[in-house]
Amino acid sequence: MVLAVKAENLWIGYMDEEENILWAVRGISIEVLEREIYCLVGESGCGKSTLGNAIVGILPPYSVTKGRLRVFNREVIVEDEKHYEEIRGKLVTLIPQNPGKALNPYLTISEQFYYVFNSLYELNKENSLKKARELLGIVGLDPEQVLDSYPHELSGGMQQRTAIALALATGAKIVVADEPTSALDANLRLQLLKLLLRLKNELGLTIIMITHDILSATRICDRVAVMYAGKIVEETSTREIIENPLHPYTKMLFDAVPILGVKKKLVSYLGEPPRPGEYIKGCQFSKRCPKAMDICREKEPEIIEINGHRVACWLYNVEGGEK
Ligand code: SF4
Ligand code: MG
């Protein structure tokens, strides 16, 4: 079992103008296995994109990090830009949230492939074109239709597939996909999820998918980690999270979405997650949680493991729980 990504007590924050650090990721430990699809789920502002960006190596200069992060067993000192240059784009690549913006509007698709292949691998135009054709075919596009086009001449779905092919052009085996389906309609969303699954199987990729949509997560992922206010609050296999979600926040995410073939009343929960810098005492979910107890407002629960299922909630922690 090869570890693709390992984070140990990883903290990531942003420095504000008064030099206060607003922590967006607070002491996360995760292990992502090679060739798995690992999903980070949560509402916006929970720190999932920050974690994804750290893995890709594209944190902004005003970010601050503590703890350890390793990619294929190579120590990534996230503050050390030079060190990361060797990893970024070669071991890890990003499928962007908005391909329309990520693609260069002034270059044809073939020119964009040439740029990647030439800068990373010094390929000439002919070889670059050959590889571009291959990759576009793999993502289900007709190369002849796409190569000479500018991004605006492609549909949203084609842009997304092109962006994926360009991300794969780096040769990286770890792909971080940040809300890859958010710009797509329901039909294209399903097609894209199937494509990611096929790419994982055919190219042996490790995919870290970031999404606010727990249903998309459960469709293709092997394991799901639910994030809330900068922490992982639950992590387990996809099957287990569907059949036996433990954390009240995970249950809330499931309650808020319709599930095909299951008759249920959709519940919407009041309140918003705290923003970095606005963290409260105790469990960060306590203001929204229907199960909150006294201890929840006093002390933040640590994540514990019960038969391979990790959860951070006083309901399951012997120190203060009642279960
Ligand atoms: Fe709810 Fe308490 Fe669990 Fe937090 S620790 S999720 S408030 S029961
Ligand atoms: Mg985000």
TrEMBL record:
Keyword Transport in annotation: yes
A GO BP annotation: peptide transport
InterPro entries tied to this protein: AAA+_ATPase, ABC_Ni/Peptide_Import, ABC_transporter-like_ATP-bd, Oligopep_ABC_C, P-loop_NTPase
Topology relative to the membrane: Peripheral membrane protein
Membrane-crossing segments per the record: none
SMART domains reported in the protein's UniProt record: AAA
GO molecular function term, any single one: ATP binding
Cited Pfam families: ABC_tran (PF00005), oligo_HPY (PF08352)
Keyword Membrane: yes
Cell location: Cell membrane
PANTHER family xrefs: DIPEPTIDE TRANSPORT ATP-BINDING PROTEIN DPPD (PTHR43297:SF2), OLIGOPEPTIDE TRANSPORT ATP-BINDING PROTEIN APPD (PTHR43297)
Protein name: Oligopeptide/dipeptide ABC transporter, ATPase subunit
